[in-house]
UniProtKB/TrEMBL annotation, chains A, B:
Superkingdom of source: Eukaryota
InterPro entries with a match to the protein in the record: LOB
Assigned protein family: Belongs to the LOB domain-containing protein family.
Stretches assigned to the LOB domain: 9-104
Name this protein carries in UniProt: LOB domain-containing protein
A Pfam family per the record: LOB
Residues in the signal sequence: none
Length: 104, 104
């Protein structure tokens, strides 16, 4: 019996990693072939194997949220290789200080 | 001639990866053996090879900052496997909305 695959439309992860996209592929529900950039970003920053491990570590109903936050984090790191998400956090903290000063 | 190493005090990275800590080790300036948890965190979330690549991609005088932000990010992800740094960003954005509402 042939092994079931998503061969007609391999997910973005399997396409980038040049591997068969099996039906139980951990990436395919979250990395559509229509948005290859999302997987490319998390692959560059975290590595495919770490992304897979991190997804398996969270309950299935929270994996889509985990993917969104990983993609956001990876893009922040690619945009700002020194501070990544920390750059966003610093800016928000600064905005809070300004608002608090206005209020006091 | 023996190859120069940091053999007496291998850095936290080389200790965890069980390898010789050469004098040109990319991790040793940033991951002291006295704080093993820092490297353990970035290793778990990003992987040693990605951390090394990300460090090499930034100018030397910014690498200490890059390490701090990577350690922060990794710890946020370990603490909150679904949202990581995004959880912190959501909370700050919420605080900003509350302050803005107070001001208006």
């Amino acid at each position: 019996m042939a092994l079931a695959t998503n061969a007609c439309t391999p997910c973005a992860a399997c396409k980038l990693l040049r591997r068969r996209c099996a039906q139980e592929c951990p990436f395919s529900p979250y990395f559509s072939s229509h948005e290859p950039q999302k997987f490319a970003s998390v692959h560059k920053v975290f590595g495919a194997s770490n992304v897979s491990k991190m997804l398996m570590d969270v309950p299935e109903n929270q994996r889509a949220d985990a993917v969104s936050s990983l993609v956001y984090e990876a893009n922040a790191r690619i945009r700002d290789p020194v501070y990544g998400c920390m750059g966003v956090i610093y800016a928000l903290q600064q905005q809070i200080r300004l608002l608090q000063a206005e209020l006091s």
